[in-house]
Amino acid sequence: MKQEVIHLVIDDTLTLRASKKAPGSQIHHQHGNKPNLAQYVRGQCWVSLAWVIRREKQPVALPLLTRLVPGISNTGKRVAAKTLIRAVYRLLDGRKVRVLVDSWYMRRIFIESMLARGFDVIGQVRIDTRLYDEPPKRKKGQRGR
Questions:
Q1: Rounded to an integer, what distance in angstroms lies between the CA atom of residue 74 and that of residue 26?
Q2: Is the separation of the CB atoms in 59 and 32 below 8 Å?
Q3: Which of 52, 78, 107, 118 could in theory staple to 7 by disulfide, Cβ–Cβ 3.0 to 4.6 A?
Q4: Does 22 have pLDDT greater than 50?
Q5: Would you tell me how many other CB atoms lie within 10 Å of the CB of residue 84?
Q6: Contact 64, 49 (CB under 8 A)
Q7: How far apart are CA 113 and CA 136, in angstroms?
Q8: Whole-number Cα distances in Å, 8 to 17, 21, 24, 30
Q9: With contact defined as beta carbons under 8 Å apart, do 13 and 28 qualify?
Q10: Whole-model pTM?
Q11: Alpha-carbon span 77 to 121, nearest angstrom
């Protein structure tokens, strides 16, 4: 009997806000290059987890959970994504799961946490990003790469 594969998708979206008082409201770089928006906009960053199913041969993404990212760093996005996975992990225990993500999430710490749960990760790694088997050794007092 062929085991059904569960596909989960993690993605982030920016909700534009005018108020500085909105929770998590920060200035973000607007990557969409939309001509009617400024290069930098105020908004909230949300990370969402969806389950992709086939309905009459057409894929449909069912939103499961969404989490507000408290800061503007990409690390916050990865922490939010790992939190969403942790929330549904017990429901998927023992099943074959593939997590589809974009390049912001394709970092060693995220990939290793998914592999530790037995999940496969599918995503594109940016050309300027390197994935290491082990972190490089640093000299005492050395900062950065």
A1: 13
A2: no
A3: 52
A4: yes
A5: 20
A6: yes
A7: 19
A8: 28, 33, 25, 25
A9: no
A10: 0.79
A11: 16
| Tokens describing residue 45 | 């960053």
Alpha-carbon span 132 to 136, nearest angstrom? 8
pLDDT of residue 144: 62
Beta-carbon-side half-sphere exposure of residue 26 (alpha carbons within 13 Å): 15
pLDDT at 93: 83
Structure-block tokens of residue 129: 């990003």
Mean pLDDT of the chain: 85
DSSP H or E run through 81 = helix 74-88
The C-alpha atoms of residue 145 and residue 142 are separated, in whole angstroms, by 8
Tens of pLDDT, residue by residue over 69-104, are 876 566 788 889 999 999 999 999 889 999 999 888
Place of tokens 């593939």: 98
